[in-house]
Amino acid sequence: MSTTTTISRVGDYVGQTVMLQGWLYNKRSSGKIQFLQVRDGTGLIQCVAVKAEVGEDIFETCASLTQESSLRVTGTVRADDRAPNGYEITVQNVEAVQIAEEYPITLKEHGVDFLLDHRHLWIRVPRQRALLRVRAEVERAVMAFLDGDGFTRIDPPILTPSSCEDTTELFQTKYFDQEAFLTQSGQMYMEAVAMSLGKVYSAGPAFRAEKSKTRRHLIEFWMIEPEMAYYEHEDNLRVQEQLVSHVVNHVLNECEEELHTLGRDIDKLKKVPGTFPRMSYDEGIKWLQKHDFDIKWGDDFGAPHETALSAQFDQPLFIERYPTAIKAFYMQPDPNRPEVALCADMLAPEGYGEIVGGSQRIHDYNLMKERFEQHNLPQDTYAWYLDLRKFGSVPHSGFGLGLERTIAWITGIEHIREAIAFPRMLYRLYP
Predict the structure, then answer these.
(1) What is the pLDDT of residue 237?
(2) Which of 52, 96, 343, 407 yields a CA-CA distance of 20 to 30 A from 128?
(3) What is the CATH number of domain 119-419?
(4) Mean of the pLDDT values across residues 24-28?
(5) Would you tell me which CATH number, out of the four given (3.40.50.2000, 3.30.565.10, 2.120.10.30, 2.40.50.140), belongs to the domain 3-98?
(6) Is the pTM of this model over 0.85?
(7) Three-state DSSP class for residue 424
């Protein structure tokens, strides 16, 4: 009798007979021996079929298998120090579940467009499987940290009547006889629920109709958005710092094999957890001007500016207190210097740009009403948000962590498109 198990668990069955269910990644033959590289989603293992031991029929079944054919392999687990995962399977039986047609993604180089057209198949290769596993562990770590710190997860709507930022970057749709938008952020709804539950967060997709083709941008991306009642600017930065440190530590502990597959320099990641450096917007402007960047106070930072500033540090860098005029209407001004906001962007090292953006929110009714008027915000769609400042308003803060940018940085990949299973970009909606 055999035990059905996974490749990741074969070490528990050395000397025993097991059944693996998976797919053929690759194979080679030396005449009377077939070497099958089998994957099952948890790992990759070599299965050795010797013709004299398995018989003609089973040996022919092995020979008939094509790349990505699905199969069940029964055999004895054997420890082997030369094997990548330390084990091999001595084959007793092979059952072909389905013989795959000629597979379009072979073990050679392919162009990016070709691979993205075949993304539904590309995700099977070891590198892409490693990225998807790291993504899953990043999500697990984020939620474990927030859940363990007293946050409650809330799911805000994706269809909204208004935007929390620039409406020119919203996807518009019809909601029966009304105009509606795909959400850019669940922040406003999280603010409302924070007044009920204290500390809350959302984890879900966001959409931005920004016609950008850079390696940092996606049209559809995922955001983690905590909001916290009675938390001010310093409290907000502390939570962000602790969260990102926890996530990096978790990935280092749980994804060593995946990081190795990706060729990630883990020594760089080991320097991350701890207290992150800070720089004010003013200091950033002065540094950039000193280093011959054409920028003046009041300009926003672009990718080259962020890369140059963050390159000075091994850890993520907080840039805080940006000019109020270039930030969102809801950000609390510094009471000692109203021309700047109590906000911060967290810039990842190694040129990956902003991974977290957050601020203390305006809690004063009169100031928020004034901002509504300055920004010509329609009262009919934003009245509920203004209401939050009329009924028990308190100082509160929040932030948004971009999941794909964070994953791209942690894994060291060149382009954000590989940080999500099916990327949506400016000219790509398929598959």
Answers:
(1) 98
(2) 96
(3) 3.30.930.10
(4) 96
(5) 2.40.50.140
(6) yes
(7) coil
